[in-house]
Amino acid sequence: MTAKEHVTHPLIKPHAIEKRLYQETIIGTAIKWNTLCILPTGLGKTLIAVLAAAYRLRKVPDSKCVLLAPTKPLTLQHQATFQKTMNLPDEGLQLVTGEVPPTRRKKLWEKVQIAFMTPQVLENDILAGRYTLKDVSLLVVDEAHRAVGDYAYVFIAEQYYKQAASPLLLALTASPGSEIEKIREVISNLRIENIELRTRESPDVAPYVPPVSFEWKEVELSERFREVGRRLKQAMRSRLQPIKQAGFIETRDLTRIGVREILGLQRDLQRRIAAESQPPSHLFQLVSHCAALIRLYHSVELLETQGISALASYLSGVFSKAKSSGASKAIRGLAQDADIQEARLLTEKLLAEKVEHPKIPILRQIIRQQLRATPQSRIIVFSRFRGTAQLIETVLKELSGALPIRFVGQASKTDDPGLTQKEQASILQSFRDGSYNVLVATSVGEEGLDIKECNLVIFYEAVPSAVRLIQRRGRTGRTQPGRVIVLVAKGTRDQAYYWTAIRKEAQMKELLKEMRKMSRDVARDRKQATLKDFMTQPTQGEREASSQLQVKIVIDSRELRSGIAKSLKSLGAELQVETLEVGDYILSDRVGVETKTANDFAQSIVDKRLFTQLGALRDTFPIPLLVISGESLYGAGGVSHQAIRGALASAMIDFRVPSVNVASAEDAANLLFTIARREQQERKHTLSVRGGKPSLSTSALQEYIVASLPGINTTLAKRLLTKFGNVFGVVQASLEQLEGVHGIGKTKAKAIRLALDSPYEQDESK
Fold first, then answer.
1. Helices H, strands E: what count in the chain?
2. Is 285 exposed, middle or buried (0-12, 13-18, 19+ CB in 10 A)?
3. Whole-prediction pTM value?
4. Contact 248, 283 (CB under 8 A)
5. Contacts of residue 601, Cβ cutoff 8 Å, sequence gap at least 6
6. Which CATH number fits domain 545-682: 2.60.34.10, 3.40.50.10130, 3.30.70.120, 1.20.1250.20?
7. Helix or strand or coil: residue 93?
8. Listing from the earlier edge strand, what are the strands of the sheet with 438-441?
9. Is the pLDDT score of 530 beyond 70?
10. Under a CB-based contact definition with an 8 Å cutoff, are residues 134 and 161 in contact?
């Protein structure tokens, strides 16, 4: 095989894909089994997807392929690669995003051959029943290491294997992670049967991988920096002291107590508070200390790894929040702390003198040298924080030959609007073209950037994640030798993070050595599961009867992305999406359900919407039900146990709405599914949308009319109607008669008569 040989296939354009042995080997197994492909960045994972799609479209006529990627820029990149390499009309290669209206997505689905989608869009459409995955013969999952927990990939894969007539899944990633349990979770969630892994050192990969040098540069923090740090750390130790005295920690040594320990302690304390009807007051104080400590850890990290501007901005925000009426005790305590006040003064002095982190001059020097040596260089600088990225862009603009541009995510923050997906794509293209030569990127630039000629990657700070280390490093050394430099502040978290990432990467490599065995184990388990499934397959008659008796549930469109909706779909419910004015779920023509998480339930007591919702639910459905999911109902949202109990009692007694507290969204879905099945299949109740506003009884309507008068609430309306007999009697009552009703004084009586007696004059301004 020579470098000039190319893949030949009816659906692949001539000379579009160079033959590479490792790609041919991987595709040889990927077209037979559900495969997890672990391949270093820049070695053609997308081309493997192209080859798999070409095979499946020929193997399974009239089928579709779907390629999923976490972001729209990534889906656009994949679409461009497929358009460049596949012998298909562009209309067959469609980008299907949330910007396309649902009705149009449904029509696109009917015609598309290969769809490029974000998982959230596909998940939404599956839940809403806009189309099925029956005809999808290949599902490609990019950045597959995300397929854990509640991420959309997990739900989509489950539905794919249920719905597809001829399913095959190809999962792609450059770095699966360093924790064996997470890797196993990915394999289980995606039903992986085969693992194809390559490293840069693999014999069949090495000829295609240019060398990448990896180095770190240490910088020393000045004494003035360290003085700010000492003040912040003293404030931390003063808050650790009462926690130590209470016996929850053994030391105040900041090298032994990290933010992870404080977060864990905070959760434990909150669970203790939630478990007791009258928790001791000192527990609340300790939770407040934990909240303050988390902010202080962040402050020290900003100082040590980012610089004065980042810390000054953060402290300014803390002091501003402390002045607001809703400020927490932790925030107010920070603003009143003498050490923190002194740290802020020192920080502002350094800021006024334009003193920045010593990383900045080192960064300028590295980039200056790179551009002098190779003027056509492309450089990426990674920074964790947007504010630091802004600072780096500003200082590099002053550097001769540097053309920097900041590359951030879509989310907008105060005084810092994010980039739209179109702006992101435009910036990347300008970087490729050379209009910019330094890309200053936050984490949004870590996954899937298609930039083949990047010479140098700089980490402004170390990262403690092996996945992020590999993703950042993978931006260079694709078609020519590359260089990676990590800036590390001596004696700070930078050093700890750097060595953590290196250790985790070493662990990952050891895990990868074991993954071929894992692959064989998984394949054996899958065969056993398949045999078991085969032995318990329902008959054709049972399947037909089941489809005729399928449970249907009406769901409010705003609930579509909830965990309950996903679990209902997994149970086999057919979801009918509507915009409901009352309730979240309708299970039959008589059962309507309002669902809340424990925190939402607590908040709805505070903002008083709970009882409005319960009243509407009771008036609309013969059988109303309130379902609250979450184990920590008592103490949720900072609402007292007494208030929670009172609200539950009012729901059941005053509003006659039964309530049930379940542990999780999955438990809630099982309950709703069971009720719906009993109502529809056993009790033979039909399903109808009763989501409109409830009709009022005559007495309620009378109360509503009278309560619209100035200063009159429902209680006073009832008194007026009792006194005067009907609405007409209230309208006819004199000033003196109105004053005779308890609760209505001279002022209210005058306001009522004024509203009733004044001539109507139309407001022309409206």
1. 29, 19
2. middle
3. 0.68
4. no
5. 610, 628, 633, 636, 637, 644, 647
6. 3.40.50.10130
7. strand
8. 212-219, 482-489, 456-459, 379-382, 438-441, 404-407
9. no
10. no
